[in-house]
Design brief:
Layout lengths: L2 H17 L9 E7 L4 E10 L2 E13 L2 E7 L5 H7 L7 E3 L4 H4 L8
Parallel strand pairs: 4-5
Antiparallel strand pairs: 1-2, 2-3, 3-4
Length: about 110
């Protein structure tokens, strides 16, 4: 299995697991969205909270330039660390929601 195929599968496995953790405090639906053609992977939550419709992205990950870009993470889970534990080198992970000047202060790739 080549590197990108491995990363694609790891991302889908992680997000599928996260999507199964339905919060008990609301009636929102959780969906994992995998766009393998464009290399976008997300978990979204949506539904009604009383009279208000809500829709938001919990996690957004892209595969770009042979690296895993964590574009957004609104969970308490450290996705980058989870990927490292699964064998992804830190230099192949970009914390995209951090500004480039802060990325160089981390152990991960700047992009």
């Amino acid at each position: 299995m080549d590197k990108l195929s491995k990363y694609r599968q790891l991302i889908k496995d992680i997000l599928s697991e996260y999507a199964h953790h339905q919060p008990t405090s609301n009636h929102l639906e959780t969906q994992a969205i995998f766009d393998e053609q464009r290399e976008h992977y997300q978990i979204v939550m949506f539904g009604w909270e009383e009279k208000k419709y809500v829709h938001y992205c919990l996690i957004h990950i892209d595969l770009k330039s042979d690296k895993i870009w964590i574009q957004w993470n609104m969970t308490e889970q450290d996705i980058a660390e989870d990927l490292v534990k699964l064998g992804v080198p830190k230099q192949d992970i970009v914390i995209g929601f951090h500004p480039p000047e802060l990325r160089k202060l981390t152990e991960y790739s700047i992009g």
